[in-house]
Amino acid sequence: MSAYSDLSAHFARISAVSNALGILHWDNAAMMPKGAAATRADSMATLAVLRHDMTTDPRVADMLDAAGGDDGLGDWERANLREIGRVFAIETAVPADLVAASSKAVSACEMRWRQAREDSDFVGLLPFLSEVLALQREMGRAKGERLGLDPYDALLNDYEPGGRSAAIDALFDDLADFLPGFVDEALAAQARRPADPPLEGPFPVETQRSLGLRFMAALGYDFERGRLDVSTHPFCGGADNDVRITTRYDEADFTTALMGVLHETGHALYEQGRPQGHMSQPVGQARGMSVHESQSLLIEMQACRSPEFIAFAGPIMREAFGGDGPAWTPEALWRRYTRVERGFIRVDADEATYPAHVILRYRLEKAMIAGDLALADLPGAWNDGMGELLGVTPPNDRLGCLQDIHWPSGGWGYFPTYTLGAMTAAQLFDAAKRADPDILPAIGRGDFAPLVAWLRANVHGQGCLYETDDLLTRATGRALDAGVFKAHLKRRYLEEA
């Protein structure tokens, strides 16, 4: 076991560097003063190169060969060798100077994006984003040459190991055909209901925060290993056993911040539930971003927009804000939380229109990586796509192509995992309810323990022991099936409506 022990010790040190980067990235988004941006960019680039150098150390190949010949390894150790080999192949394809250049470009672009988004200034962001895109193309080519993939699939592989755009194209084209007619039906069903009166604000930020904390606790979030803060774009980050989430508040509408908290808590429960004995190893990491997004969407969309959850949470919301009248009944609140609307903002979208937002971004980023769409033409292409897929046109770039942080932060290839995650969430929640019929009644009592226990056993605690398809098949009895997601949408928005 000495070769394996040496290898795992080496990757534990790499994990420590990743943890430091995670906290710096969280601080960069949540608390760092603007004047520290340049120094922080240098620090993060230095740590990124250090991690890259450690991961691509030639001794890793020798240790992998030596450890692979040990007959005494168990399933977790064998899976760890597989994951280390995957990471090593990807990282050795990219030179250290490209890693450093990309880290610095992303830091600068993220900072500029915050102001550009506020000002709806795509032209001001363009030179920063152009540099990020050029470096992402270069990284995609380098990784693709090593892995035998085209550049986009090589970038996608970072977020969805084994994922390929050809398979996603088929899934998304099917959804793109299904969604327009379904959304029309859902809107027609919605229009037949009496209009609910508006919830009258303002809703103080501190009350919203307290409410979010209360529901985080109900879900099982461990506050000894995390915290809640504010950022321009909600996210879950931090480090092993220090899992931090953020949201953003609007005093005119408390529902968006609350659902943002619930969404990010789903991510955090996954991170807090990873196998402690393998936390510092690649095998102990989350199993790709489609599974990660399934955990946030399972909590937010499947569980916390259910009638059972609203029946529990509605009276708490009403009491917190001193609400009164028909707008605050559980039935009215449920209708509000399941309202279908053709809107501009992805993170505020309902689950019926959300996939269209993702399909748009997926098609655009593929085209930009391939060079088929010039970055300068992105705003127009974005608006055209919104019209085609959702029937609306953003009035400005703040509500259009500047709304997401993913491209400025170097997250090219990430977007498709959101809708893959929504499909996976529907399938996992369906399997969980069949395995334990008390899950929905317990949620109605404010008790998430049965659901989280099932997720811990079937997803969180499995880390990267299995490949994505195998993990899902073991948990649900079948491979990813879009029919489960479609059936969920029809049931909630056509039958329950």
UniProtKB/TrEMBL annotation:
Reaction(s) catalysed by this chain, per the record, are: Release of a C-terminal amino acid with broad specificity, except for -Pro
What this protein needs as a cofactor is: Zn(2+)
* Catalytic residue list: E264
**Biological process (GO), any one:** proteolysis
Give the keywords, sorted: Carboxypeptidase, Hydrolase, Metal-binding, Metalloprotease, Protease, Zinc
What domain of life is recorded for the organism? Answer: Bacteria
Q: CDD domains given for it?
A: M32_Taq
An example Pfam family from this entry, by short name, is Peptidase_M32
The note describing how and how many cofactors are bound reads: Binds 1 zinc ion per subunit.
Q: Which residues bind Zn(2+)?
A: H263, H267, E293
Q: What is its EC number?
A: 3.4.17.19
GO molecular function per UniProt: metal ion binding; metallocarboxypeptidase activity
* Role this protein plays: Broad specificity carboxypetidase that releases amino acids sequentially from the C-terminus, including neutral, aromatic, polar and basic residues.
**Family designation:** Belongs to the peptidase M32 family.
Q: Name it.
A: Metal-dependent carboxypeptidase
Species of provenance: Hansschlegelia zhihuaiae
